[in-house]
Amino acid sequence: MTAVEYVGSVSSEGGPLLVADALTVAKWRGVEDGGADYDRACRVSSPGGSLAMGGSMGIIWDLGGPGTAGVLREGFSGLVICRAWLSVTTVAEGRATIARFAEIPLVPQRRMLLGRIHVASGALVVLWATESGRSVRSSEVPGQRMGKAFASVEGSMLAIAMPSGMYTCWHDQVELPVGEARRCIVTME
Fold first, then answer.
1. 86 and which of 45, 99, 126, 179 could share a cystine (Cβ 3.0–4.6 Å)?
2. E strands of 3-153, at which residues?
3. Residues 53, 27: contact at Cβ < 8 Å?
4. Does the bond joining 47 to the residue before it have cis omega, within 30 degrees of 0?
5. What is the spatial distance between Cα 116 and Cα 122, in angstroms, rounded to a whole number?
6. pLDDT-above-70 percentage for the chain
7. Number of domains in the chain
8. Peptide bond into 108 cis (omega under 30)
9. pLDDT at 150 over 60
């Protein structure tokens, strides 16, 4: 695994995250309109898997309870979404440790395939699945932290510029002396 760069974080007050192309997320309604989208997300078995979304696919990933996941870019075309339980005391120590978790190589015997997604818009969005993607427009989001203008809860949505193409998503769990983490690893095919 190559060096990683911290690009932001996504928080959940409980319930899974959705990882999908910005054009796909724009059709997502979360708990709005009767909550049918969020109900479908919650039916995906933990730690996660694929979810059909109007002709496209998204990935549902369970953080393992309420919390915040760091999102780290791996090279130009990969991401690691990392939810860690740490015994560190400062934000700087936490980010450094999350980067160390993200750099641990994916071990084939310990990984679980979550599914594949197509990024057509050049932007991948990670959001707490309760949120609606109604305000997401791919031309506006690459590389941006998506605040109140996009999400009802600050910090619950993040957009990352990614090359167009197919991506495979994996789940695993890793440990270091200072804690443990769940990871959703997104790699370009």
1. 179
2. 4-12, 17-21, 48-53, 56-61, 67-74, 78-86, 112-119, 123-128
3. yes
4. yes
5. 16
6. 89
7. 1
8. no
9. no
CB contact at 8 A, 68 and 155 = yes
Chain-centroid distance of CA 46 in Å reads: 14
Cα 68 to Cα 162: distance, rounded to the nearest angstrom: 22
Q: What are the beta bridge partners of residue 116?
A: 168
> Please, are residues 160 and 124 in contact by the beta-carbon 8 Å criterion?
yes
Q: Could you list the residue range(s) of the whole structural domain that residue 158 is in?
A: 4-188
Answer yes or no: are the C-beta atoms of 154 and 133 closer than 8 Å: no
* The residue type at 173: Q
Question: Which one-letter amino acid corresponds to residue 158?
Answer: L
The enclosing H or E element of 91 equals helix 91-103
The pTM assigned to this predicted structure is 0.91
Q: Interior CA angle at 112 toward 179 and 8, to 5°? A: 50
